[in-house]
Amino acid sequence: MENSAAPLLLVYKQSAGAAEENRKLNPSSLSSSLSIFASEVWTETKLIWYIAGPTILTTVLQFSLGFITQSLVGHLGTIELAAVGIQTNVIGGIGYGVMMGMGSALETLCGQAYGAGRLDMMGIYMQRSWLILMGTALVLTPVYVLAAPILKLLGQNTAVADLAGKFSLWMLPELYGYALNFPTQKFLQAQSKVMPMTWISLIAVVFHGVMSWVFIYKLGLGLVGAAIILNLSFWFIAVGQIVYVVYWCNDAWSGLSWLAFCDLGGFVVMSIASGVMICLEYWTYMLLIILAGLLKNAELQIDAATICMNLQACVFMIPLGFLAASSVRVSNELGAGHPRIAKFSVWVMVAISVIIQITCTVVLIIARNQFPVLFTDDKRVIAEVSRLIFFLSASVLLSSIQPILSGLAIGAGWQTMVAFINIGSYYLVGMTVGCVLGFKFNFGLEGLWGGVIIGIAVQTVILLVITLRTNWEKQAALAKERITNWGGSAEDPLLD
């Protein structure tokens, strides 16, 4: 299929060039400058939404798989909700965070290769990522198998840990689905081919909703039925995307190649750096769930924290779409040697995201007593979630900027630097403050979450300062160098 983003890109570059000429001809005309600026903002906004819109829909639909499962399981009982919640956020969170993080290396390399016109390397990059992530899934398998003792070692309730351990065993196939899904997603996103992913995910969600109800309630399979359908739905998405790549991406996919086994060194390094960066962000909330299990009334605290995390994840779908758009726009433009457009795109996205997240925050506060009912009938849990909504709102507001800056870091290839920033902000500052407030001063879950919010705020400020001080011309030069040094050769050694 033809990449319909290309005409938009051409129009953008033509309008940007015309704007530069107009500035030279009319340097003192304020109204002309404002008109040109508004035109550039509008053109960039259309291009951003072309990528972010379908990405948000896709992310919402794929997140809905777990959301539907937890909603249905939550009405079986509080212990079932706690077990699925802690498996999804802790054990599943380890697998999801590592695989998504390592797969995001493809956003840098594929995005910059696409911008530079090196489509011949994109399919090979994806195959290398498949190999690396499959190997990573093998390494992570014992975590799923030993989920129950791991959760007990972390101090979790025995009954919840045992049930979560059983559910984790059934969810093992999903881990290997991640190994195929994330590289394929990044490959398509780098080319702005996001609508096919949306349609595939929509079909999967319809199937998942109907069959989950049948397996959990009508057939009485409970958590086992939930796991079976969740795995099937996720694998449908992974396989569907690969089929699309094979049959409709002939410009960037030329079939399986032995080149996938070559030049893996730099690719592994960037994958690990990407994995560490993303995991340090993603695991902050996983650790929050674990620490909630150490508080008094652990089952109640885990249920409340799990529901809040699900609500935040729902709202986070929007900035997550902008994260993808930021990564794609920055990597494409740096690869193409257009640093000014990359910089401009980031600030347009920040402005759009801030407006949207403020709106979402207002909605959450107004409907704070209605949202928890989607997950549970327990009045104690509903009351606890309503009390935590203001902490949730603060997290939502911060997520209007932070994901875009993270997307910028991925697009520019700053993963290693940001990994160190995340260690300091999230863990040395955020978690330390959270534990002191939560346990030492007995603020409980509010104290723990307050520490997380402080950590996110510190990271956001640091990334803002770095972004403002960035030499974008130098980043464009580094992008071209990275395509050669980290991407490897396009020459097939077997043919040589």
From TrEMBL:
InterPro entries: MATE_euk (IPR045069), MATE_fam (IPR002528). It holds the Pfam family MatE. GO terms for cellular component: membrane. The lineage of its organism: Eukaryota, Viridiplantae, Streptophyta, Embryophyta, Tracheophyta. It comes from the Eukaryota. It is found in: Membrane. Keywords: Membrane, Transmembrane, Transmembrane helix. GO terms for molecular function: antiporter activity; xenobiotic transmembrane transporter activity. Belongs to the multi antimicrobial extrusion (MATE) (TC 2.A.66.1) family. GO terms for biological process: xenobiotic detoxification by transmembrane export across the plasma membrane. The chain crosses the membrane at residues 47-68, 130-151, 197-216, 223-247, 267-295, 307-326, 346-367, 388-411, 417-439, 448-468. The keyword Cell cycle does not apply. This is Protein DETOXIFICATION. It comes from Stephania yunnanensis. It is a multi-pass membrane protein.
